[in-house]
């Protein structure tokens, strides 16, 4: 069985290394290798990883925090182009209650206080389903913290994170940006430049992320097999 963790990709070496570290942590828990692939910016691509391993079934976990183009269109296209006939693609990492717990841990680590204004900062999307996923995560985080969390975006969508920070300044409280990003990169840099009092680190190699990815792989392995081809879980 081939295990593949698929991420977006970044030109930042630190971000690429982080995905590799995350895959290593997952592999240590599963007791088997986990290969890494990227859909943009850097390689190897899912086509390359799957195409080199067509002799055994494969499970692919999209390391994305919401649905969107890469999950719904890009990854399935890579699977088809690879020529691999036995691939199970799990659902994205988010939304999931586990991610809300990881976000709270990152907030506590950053020095967040209960009276702070909090912004959940995502990369952004124009996909309606992915946008619903992000609002679901913001709602879960709001419920966990006991106060309203605003949703803002580093790239696609409104409000932009810097604008949301400026709007919350008028409340007279500190503004904390909770990074809803998996790794370092351009978007995390934008969060740090947003003018917030505190910006949490990306979710990264938090143990909760490792457990979530392990769960995705394990559920795919115990699910009833489909006939052949690309399968979703």
UniProtKB/TrEMBL annotation:
Q: Which Pfam families match?
A: CbiX (PF01903)
The UniProt record lists the EC number as 4.99.1.3
Give the residue spans that cross the bilayer: none
Query: InterPro entries per the record?
Result: CbiX-like (IPR002762), Sirohydro_Cobaltochel/CbiX (IPR050963)
Assigned keywords, A-Z: Lyase, Metal-binding
Single GO MF annotation: metal ion binding
| Keyword Endoplasmic reticulum (UniProt) | no
Q: What is this protein called?
A: Sirohydrochlorin cobaltochelatase
Q: Which gene encodes it?
A: cbiX_2
